[in-house]
Amino acid sequence: MNAQRLSERLTRVASYVEKGAIVADIGSDHAYLPCYLIHHQLAIKVVAGEVAKGPYESALSQVLAEQLQEKVTVRFANGLQAIKRDDFVDTVTIAGMGGPLIATILNQDIERLTTVNRLILQPNIHAKAIREWAILNEWKLVAEEILQEDDKIYEILVLERGHMKLSATQALMGPFLIIDKKNQVFRLKWSKESAEWIRILKAIHGAQISREVEMKKHEIEEKLKIVREALES
């Protein structure tokens, strides 16, 4: 993977960036996605934010190597703190993290999303946390995608400002994704999730019963029921 040829996962993330966007890529790593967006004329300006020193320096080197320093700004910053008011960022991408961490990043500096009208988020796990964050903060899903790459399954969630209500099933499995229940990657994901939940339940069965354990057991059983009913209906 490089700035000219992204992984399938990041290529799909890039496909949701609207032409002419001003983008902030949070957790940019090597800045491959920002450089790709400029090379392919999808964005006119990109801020690449990195909180870790090594990836930050790699991003700086990559942008210089691609001679894109006038259009890609690399900043050493925590989460959305990479965004400044006069950037006028309208699109934020966050890819390759867990859903709860992405939701935390969005919450910590939510005021920096003032000019943003599109979020393109790619959680590795627990996308439900992002859907729940969206409901609470008046963002709505406009697209979702699921794909498999290198034996890993990824989801992409695209959000715009607006109100949204989701059922428990939609919040867990995705309102757009669940429409195509025959999608093999979708079914594989929930088959794997269910197998892991069953494994945990068996482990809990031998544990000392406490209020916390009982709550965890109930939560898993509810999720198993939701998935089973959704896939069988």
UniProtKB/TrEMBL annotation:
Keywords: Methyltransferase, Transferase. SUPFAM superfamilies: S-adenosyl-L-methionine-dependent methyltransferases. GO terms for molecular function: tRNA (adenine(22)-N1)-methyltransferase activity. It comes from Paenisporosarcina antarctica. It comes from the Bacteria. GO terms for biological process: methylation. This is tRNA (Adenine(22)-N(1))-methyltransferase TrmK.
